[in-house]
Amino acid sequence: MSDETPICSAKGCRADALWVLVWNNPKVHTPERRKTWLACEEHREHLSQFLGVRGFLKDVIKFEDWEARELPQGPPEVP
Ligand SMILES: [Zn+2]
């Protein structure tokens, strides 16, 4: 994991990402492949529409939930 604050994927936007858009382009990706875009509150609608009209959008997940999902499933370390 990096300490960098995640930034919105919208062009020119430097806002913190609050959402993860999960997508797949069936023309170039295998069905199980997942690409992700990050979005701030303002661009979530715009970016998800962009993917949605093309039929690419699979899921929209809160960034904190996405991060929790990505963590390894092992038991917590006790010092
Ligand atoms: Zn943005």
Describe the 3D structure.
The protein starts with 18 loop residues before the first strand and ends in a 9-residue tail after the last helix. It has 2 helices and 3 strands, in the order E-E-H-E-H. The protein has 79 residues and is α+β, with helices and mostly antiparallel strands. The model has no long low-confidence stretch (mean pLDDT 90). The protein has helices spanning 41-53, 63-70; strands at residues 19-23, 35-39, 57-62. The chain has a 3-stranded antiparallel sheet. The protein has a domain at 19-70. The structure holds zinc ion. This is Acetone carboxylase.
Q: Which characteristics define this entry?
A:
3-stranded antiparallel sheet; 3 strands; 79 residues; alpha+beta; single chain; binds zinc ion
